[in-house]
Amino acid sequence: MSDIISSDLPFTAEQRATLEAVLPMVIPASPDGLMPSAGEVGFLQWMDEFARDAVDAIQITLDRIDQAARESGGSAFAELETAGRQQVIDGLFAGEPRTLRPLTDQVMACYYSHERVLDALGANPGPPFPHGNEVKQADLTLLDPVRERGKIWRDA
Question: pTM score, two decimals?
Answer without folding.
Answer: 0.74
